[in-house]
What does this fold into?
Amino acid sequence: MDLARQLVHAREVGLKTGMVLQKRLENARETYSGRVQQAVGNPDASPTEPMAEMDPMSGYAYAIDSMQLCHPVLGHAKATGQQFCRKHHAGPQAGPVFWLRDRLG
It folds into this structure.
């Protein structure tokens, strides 16, 4: 293929891909709208109606809470990994790796 044919082919593929994506998005929007109408029980409901009372700050608060809850878990994973590396470098005489298993019994 010469350069002109490659450009024409790339343009055609791009157009076809865009048309398929547009049809899929339209189908997904219609399906979502139908599901919202069924869930709300109102055939005239728009997809944004159930979310009309949501506060944007509640999403921010949820993100902050999830980060704060994730912090201790990641700290424990980091400590366990560091302990594993220290014991691995010390050799097989170092004993068990996981301190929680040792403490529980």
